[in-house]
Amino acid sequence: MMALRLGAILFGAALFLALPTVSDQGIVFLAGLVVIEAIFALSWNLLFGFTGLASFGHAAFFAIGAYLTGYGLKAGLGVPFLGLIAASGLLGALVAALTGLVLLRRTTGIHLAIFTLALAEVLRIVIGYSTLLGREDGLASIPKPTLELGFATIPLTSGTAYYYFMCVAGLVIGAVLWVVCHGPYGRLLVSIRQDPQRVAFLGVNVGRKRLQAFILSGAVAAIAGALYAPWAQIVTPESAHWIHSTQPMLASLLGGAHSFWGPVVGTVLFSIINYLTRNLVGLSELVIGATLLIIVLAAPSGVIGLVRTAQQRWSRRRKSGAGPDGDEGGSVRS
Amino acid sequence: MALTDILFALINGAATGSAVFLVAAGLTLIFGILKILNFAHGAFFMIGAYVAYSIIGSNPSSLHVFIAAAFAAAAAVAALGFVADRLVLRRLRHVDEAYMLIATFAVLLVCTGVVKLIWGVNYASINPPPLLDGAVTAGSLFVPSYSLFVIAAGLFVFLGLELVIHRTWIGKLLQAVASDSWMSGVLGINVPAALTVTVIASFALAGLAGGLLLANQTLSPILGESYLLLAFMAVIIGGLGNVRGAFIASLLLGTIESGSSLVIPNMPGMATYIFVILFLLAKPQGLIGGRHI
Amino acid sequence: MTAILSVEGVDKSYGTHHILKSVSLTVEDGETFAVIGPNGAGKTTLFKVMTGEIGFERGRIVYDGRDVSRAPAHERARLGMGRTFQVARIFPDVTVADNLTVAVEARRRSRGESAPAWYRVATRADIRAEVEARLLDVGLADKAAVEAKFLSHGDKKRLEFGIALAGRPRILMLDEPTAGMSPTDRIATADLIARLRAETGLTVVMTEHDMDVIFGLADRILVMNYGEIIAVGSIEEVRANPLVREVYLGQEIYHAER
Question: How many Cβ pairs closer than 8 A exist between chain A and C?
């Protein structure tokens, strides 16, 4: 089980790293978007799958990072690229802290969904009005940066170099989030998702933990946006649109919201569906919508859940009915 | 700012509000009974518009035809609603809230996909029927007749719903189901039938709204989204599941939207969203809380 | 003996329903205090008020010498109040061991004891040992790796009991700890409570329907009816109380309910 999982992760990573040598630029561009959207989806699912909060305006954080980094690179402020990424994360965290303080105090469920949605729309309108940020046209021709590490300077101005940088960044962020989600902190968040009141009676300030998760999630989403700006080289108010907020939701649900890698699997599947149906307008929505419906109605634990169930059945048959198998963590963590 | 500007903004606000209510009415109805916040409502509204468009084309020949097409759209969407209820909504009743939202969003995606496959992605624009093509002028005030028509339609639907909900046995029955479906079942009310009736009514309202609001706007596969958000806000502010609340909230939002366009013309929607956020922070249960429809 | 928890003139209404009418009581340190009464007497509401699950209109609640009337649930838990719910509240999607691990870690963090940092993915040995001790306490050691949602009803109650114990409470509030259990499980639970009380000097406040459990455990009993306290005292005192006899014998509530 463990070996299989590790194998799948390594295979996936190898595939992504080998991509620029075997396929054309268009595919590499899409793969880069997958990396970005996967980080974005992981950030959303930290809230939903682990803490039990559904944000419907998560694209706002993405846009904050994308615009900050895009503006910084375009205006040539002389801030190093890593500094811009860090600043994006901080700004995302700050905005999440401020909104979270107000919103999380007494809202969950549908109200939280509408609040976050409305706030994100406000941000989109403000961006669309801001001359500094290029109004409705957005920021175009954002240059790709140079990475200054102090001891070395690595130009990321070529598409391939930046692609590799994103892969590394994705791995680092994924690893950090994995540790967060699988340690004591993640265990607590998962408990809060299942029964916040029970957790409060364990002596935990649930409101504060939710706020922390919101801040962390906002920061990571903003970093995903920061990575996006130089890759797409254009950032428009559409990046804050609520339709974009639904992307991480769909990906997480498709892949499996209760497993850590679910959002990543979902993002990859989505991109594949989109790519295969690109020639017939409307088909991608139809296929994605139908798949999601089937997932929610028939397999709420997503693709990863399906795979896991199949696996358990198989191993149980092998053990010929020997008690509950020792797959610790079961449906929540992997 | 002249008095006529303000008057114009008010009438415009009432028209926008009525349009929002036409969409919100079905949304709040279905929430009241099924406790589902139905994202797909916007898509069915759009399908209604497309169906009506297929019947009357870009230049409807008369007001009668225009209205008849809207009712035909209502019937078509009601039939679709019946199918959606059987296939999807019914199965969502015991699913977690967030999954419900996402499932109905998936239905929205499917519908958008189907609309794109059938009608393509090109924009179409539809003129109002001859009678509503002009404008009513009083002094320097200039009001498009179509706006007055939309206000009348909103009022008509609101009064109709009020009448059905508060004055008929089916309304009383639905209220009973809305406030406690388990107890209603115990009392011998056929709850599944009541639910089906509501779902069909809700979808019929979406289709009707699509047909009635067809003119003077660009018909495209993103039409559903444009009204959906405002209608969502209206439903939440009005108190989830409350038709009267949704009506008041729709008019309020419409007025804020059109009033703010006088003050900050460059940021459409801004004032509305800020109002929604502040309102919900102050009064999270909505204008009219409780379990009424 | 000193008072550990006192409720002073508490009123609580839901809308026009006046559920608690100026309720006052005192729980002594180390005793086992049972709250009984017919359904709808306000036992559960009193319980919620004492644990901080809900607020109340008038009166105050004093725990260990400090006013906790406005203290949220998590602060009361940090001060040493533990509780269980009428219907066992556990974390269904994780293993039995993880249910307890999260409780142990939460207590350690909130009381400033040694707790693992966020990046320690493997459960620390000392925490694992503590979890195992709690598993043995509640007799779930052989089910440690089972997802909690697959437990039987009685096992869920036991797990929740273990979760509450993992918080090392000074006072343990049990809302119908044996509700829905088989007679054997019921005896086992009563034995467990008695043993823990003897080992740790725990104060217990409980509501319960099963008279055998109450008579076996309680030092003092409080009887409620229609939101009012009608008697409080030792088992013999309460048994001899004419008002209690009227309420119970007049309605035979317990037998009618089963």
Answer: 109
- Closest A-chain CA to B103: A293
Q: In the structure encoding, which two tokens stand for residue A179, read together?
A: 């540790």
Which chain A residues are closer than 8 Å to B270 by Cβ? 122, 125-126
Question: Which residue in A182, A191, A206 is closest to C121 by CB distance?
Answer: A182
ipTM confidence? 0.88
Domains (ranges, CATH) in chain B? 3-282 (1.10.3470)
Chain A residues near residue C128 by CB distance under 8 angstroms? none
Mutate to test the interface with B, among A98, A112, A122, A241 (most CBs of B within 10 A): A122
Residue A314, domain extent: 25-319
**Helix, strand, coil percent content, chain A, rounded in steps of 5:** 75, 0, 25
| CATH code: domain of residue C53 | 3.40.50.300
Alpha-carbon dihedral angle through residues A44, A47, A48, A50, given to the nearest 10 degrees: 120
Residue C11 lies in a domain: yes
Of C82, C97, C118, the CB nearest to A185: C118
| Domain contains C56 | yes
**pLDDT tens profile B185-217:** 667 677 777 788 888 889 999 999 988 888 877
Judge whether A244 lies within some domain. yes
Question: 3-class DSSP state for residue B75?
Answer: helix
CATH of the domain at A89: 1.10.3470
Q: What is the pLDDT of residues C171-213, one digit of tens each?
A: 999 998 888 888 888 888 888 889 888 888 899 999 988 888 8
Inter-chain touch B277–A122, beta carbons under 8 Å = yes
Q: Give the position of tokens 């139809």.
A: A286
Domain assignment present for A268: yes
Q: Decide if A330 is inside a domain.
A: no
Amino acid of residue A157? T
Assess whether chains A and C touch, using the rule of 3 or more C-beta pairs within 8 angstroms.
Answer: yes
Distances (CA, A) of B141 to B76, B120, B204, B264, C227: 39, 39, 35, 21, 65
Which residues contact residue B229 at a Cβ distance below 8 angstroms, ignoring those fewer than 6 apart? Answer: A117, A121, A242
